[in-house]
Design brief:
Elements: H1 3-25, H2 32-39, H3 43-49, H4 53-76, H5 82-99, H6 106-113, H7 120-146, H8 155-176, H9 182-193
Helix pairs in contact: 1-2, 1-4, 4-5, 4-7, 5-7, 5-8, 5-9, 6-7, 7-8, 8-9
Length: 197
């Protein structure tokens, strides 16, 4: 009876270690032996839970997805007005990118290391991005429904535009190591939202 929680705790330690090492160092640059050593588990324990490094990467991406989407939803939650909720995405990006020292998106970083689009690791990347797009769509649908000023917007079109803007912000901030482009991105999206030329 006592063995199961210990095993579960060991699995969580391995995933937590991967959350740090894969994000900070990169997936390919991080060896299994380093994960085992830093997680404080035996090789047998590691391979019991994760028969391959690929299995660990999938678990890492699932865990990272929950963490990152949790941060984003937590950042949106304090706002009540639909416009403020939508635009808080930009505030979140500025805060998160600064906090992570411009390491960028864990999912895009992994995707750059695993070129096969049909690989199961890449499928987790796509699943994360699909949920991000779904959340952006929810925010835009809410804006259209609850704010008469935006009753005529096209949420489908704007979701795709906002998603591309978000990804552009993440990539640009990672490249330049600052958040100077976020204000312009926010302003331009606001103009698009309002149908301004």
């Amino acid at each position: 009876m006592k063995k199961v929680p210990a095993e579960s705790e060991a699995r969580q330690r391995i995933i937590q270690t991967a959350l740090d090492l894969f994000y900070r160092q990169g997936y390919l640059a991080t060896g299994i032996n380093q994960v085992i050593a830093e997680a404080g588990v035996s090789k047998n324990t590691f391979y019991y839970y994760f028969p391959s490094k690929e299995d660990l990467c999938v678990a890492y991406l699932i865990a990272r997805h929950k963490v990152w989407m949790g941060w984003l939803k937590e950042a949106i939650e304090p706002y009540q007005a639909p416009y403020d909720r939508l635009m808080s995405v930009f505030t979140f990006l500025e805060s998160w990118l600064t906090r992570c020292n411009f390491r960028g998106c864990a999912f895009l970083n992994i995707a750059s290391e695993v070129p096969d689009i049909n690989h199961r690791i890449r499928k987790e990347v796509i699943a994360h991005k699909d949920e991000l797009r779904a959340l952006l769509r929810e925010l835009l649908d809410d804006l259209k429904c609850r704010d008469p000023q935006f009753a005529e917007i096209n949420p489908e079109f704007l979701t795709e535009m906002l998603y591309v803007i978000v990804e552009g912000i993440i990539g640009s901030c990672q490249i330049y190591g600052n958040t100077s482009l976020i204000a312009a991105a926010r302003q331009n999206f606001d103009r698009l939202l309002r149908g301004a030329p």
